[in-house]
């Protein structure tokens, strides 16, 4: 009997409801410390919510490989703790004041406490991962954290500069897509995937993560502050150019290029308005180009897992790129 396709967020997450609830419990338990500041910051960050897409991917990957043990819940919490630690550090580096519609943790607890809390979260993630007693899991997580730290450092070097697409794609792989890839890979490791299967799962996660970040960057430019939960065009305000802007810069006039350079230099929309930047992006079809690139990565993600046997879990994974590309926040 064929399995009905999965088409909605609710249906996909219903497949994972109990495991995601268990991950949330593990996440809560894993962010408690004898130092109250760490516990308070951890609790505040958990309450901010989030899509939990990374642990969901780990669960789907493990289930695709037929894994039924408790390790998927533990490692699902690990990837979410790592993700949370990166957000803490990102907000400090970017001097962000808002995260998901609320004051960022560093505005409430200060940079010094949040730096240390982020470091503690990284170490706690490794402590939980050690329970699997699998050196490969630790090796994968070490590689992940190194890639992410390198990505942050590279981005700091590029702030205020008009980077090219190759540089930009390297940055978004390191900062976002590598965690998607690692989530899929960890699920495969738990399920005893072959090297070829593990590569396919990793390719799926990498391509999905690239699509996710490209769409995220477009939404940063085009969505409202109410939807985003933070000021619009935060990337440009922080000195970062993303794909749509790079696409326009490769086609625009010298005068139009100066508009972008002015925003990057001023780190604000003072001499140049957000509307002027949007007009330029629309003039060169740059928003559409970014969406097209995200769609290509989504197709590549689907292709990466085409060799796995048909199942409800596979169909959920095949649907996930649609959710990523079509989302509005």
Concise description?
By secondary structure, the protein is an all-alpha fold. Helix content is 74%, strand content 1%. The mean pLDDT is 92.
Spatial sequence of strands, sheet with the most strands: 1-2
Query: What is the domain tally?
Result: 1
Q: According to CATH, what is the class?
A: Mainly Alpha
Proportion of helical residues: over 70%
**Rg calculated over all Cα atoms:** 20 Å
Number of strands: 2
Quick one: biggest sheet?
2 strands, antiparallel
> What is the terminal separation in angstroms?
36 Å
Number of helices: 17
Low-confidence stretches: none
Class of secondary structure makeup: mainly alpha
- In N-to-C order, the SSE pattern is HHHHHEEHHHHHHHHHHHH
